[in-house]
Each structure stands twice: as structure tokens, then as C-alpha cells.
Amino acid sequence: MMITNQARCVLKNGIVLLRWIAVVSSSVAAIISTMLPLYGEIPGGSWGGLFLLLLCSAFLIHGVLTHLLNDYTDHLSGTDAHSPAILSGGSRLIQTGEVPAETIGRMGKGLAAGLALLSAALLVTGFVRLGVLLAIGVWAAVSYSLRPLRTSYYPVAGEWISTFPSLFFLGLAGPWLALETVPEWALQNALVNALICIAWVMVHHIPDLNADARAVPKKVTSVVWASETFGLPFARLPALLYYGLAGACVFWLGLERLPAAIGLAASAAAAMFLIMKMNLEDPEEVSSVEKWLLLLAMSTAVWLGIFV
């Protein structure tokens, strides 16, 4: 009975740590967006096996590793202790006493080391593409949360040094592994989905403005920087800029992918409208908008995957 209770507790904490809604709307959406066009282009068994491999990798790296390290670092700095914790503020496993901070830290660092060794083994045994993809994922998680870089604590750095490479190459992974050359539509879909993900992450940071500013060291996200530099209304600026970049990709899609371009334009416009009208001082309203942005992100990823 004790073993059963312990297993149930581990399973429950694991599900909480995963924050599966965020993983599905970012990582899984990016995978689907570039795997859908491959359906029927490669043998069904190969398609299913590759999809399952990417899915498991996304949950392991973006769901487990990234959140372990991020929870640990944000606990040490104190930002999670002051977060309103609706959709933000980490998994809360440390704050609720479910798992000690030291255990979270050891698990995260141990998993990072194990995956880094696996990446090296893949590289030296000839599985170069798999090794490179895994290395990028580990790099993103480690550089985002751990010293000496800890890019999540600096404006712009967290997005471009850590988050973007991980999401872009995850979206590109399916075609890169399955095909001789990467088609243009794969590059387009991977770029758009990565930018959209970063955009809603910027919204995700808005409720944590005060908590991040009180952290030690101070967590100067792009949202904190924009708010402190130009005033609170400009806390939405980073999200608007990233949605604007994603929307600008309609010119790259052009007439060759007109339905995809129209869908992307509509999605980006809807997202920017929601961000402009939301009350920045109401964490519940911001979180409600974020939920709509997650739905838009998933819908856009599938739409781009259908219309290639």
C-alpha cells in the first residue's frame, strides 16, 4: 500500500511538473505543424515512430528538464514565492512542500548531465542529426536557467539564446530527420511557430512583473525591461513585437501558400487585439487571454501543417 501511495504521489507530481498544456501548445504544436505534411510522404510506420520519438523528446526536455531547472532557479531567486501563480509561477511543487528544492535541483542537473552524455554518444556513433537536436534541447534548458548564462534573467537573451533555437529546431526536426533536404515550408512553419510561442511566453511573464522585479538576482525579462523603461502599458510591447514578426511571415508564405498566409494573418491579428485590450493589472484576465493565445497557437500550427 505504501509503495502504491508513493507511486501515486510521484505520478501526480510529475503531471504537475510537466505543465502539459504549455508543452502541447508550444512543443507538440510545432511538431504537428511539420509532421502533418509528411504523412503519406514517408512510410506509415516510419512516420508514427518519428512522431512518437519527437513527442517523447519534447515532454522530456521541454516538460521535465526545462521545468525542473526553471523551478529550482526561480525558487532560489524568490520570484516564484511572490508570483500570483495562476498560469505562471512554476509548478508550485517547491512552494507547496511537495518536493524539496534540493531534490528538484539534483534531478534537473542529473537529467541534464545524462542527456548531454547521450547526445555525445549519438554524435560519436554516427547519429549526428539526433545528437545535434538533443544537444540543442539540453543547451536551451541549461542556458535558460543555470549559471553562468541564466538567460531567462536578461531581456531578449532568454528568447533568442535559449528559447528560439530549441523551438525552431524541434519544429524542423521531423523533416530534417525524414528527408534528404529540408523543404521551404518546413522552415516557414518552424519559424512561425517558434515566434508565436515566444510571443505568448511574453504574455505569460506579465502577471509576474512585480515578482520578477523583486527577485534576487532581479529577473529582468523583456517584459520587466519594457515596463520599467517605458511604463506599465508597454509591458505588452514584447508580445506585440513577436506576434508582429510572426505575422510578417505572411509575405514569405506569399501567394504560393495563400490559405496558410491568410490563416496566419488572422491568427496574429486576433492575438494582438486580445493583448491590446487586456487589463495588465488583472492577473486573472491576463491568464484568460493567455489561454486564448494557447488555443490560437495550436490552431495556427495545425493550419500551417495542412496548407503547405
From TrEMBL:
Source superkingdom: Bacteria
Membrane spanning residue stretches: 20-40, 46-69, 115-140, 160-179, 186-206, 234-253, 260-280, 292-307
Keywords for this protein: Membrane, Transferase, Transmembrane, Transmembrane helix
Coiled-coil segments on the chain, per record: none
Stated name of the protein: Prenyltransferase
Annotated source species: Salibacterium lacus
Organism lineage: Bacteria, Bacillati, Bacillota, Bacilli, Bacillales
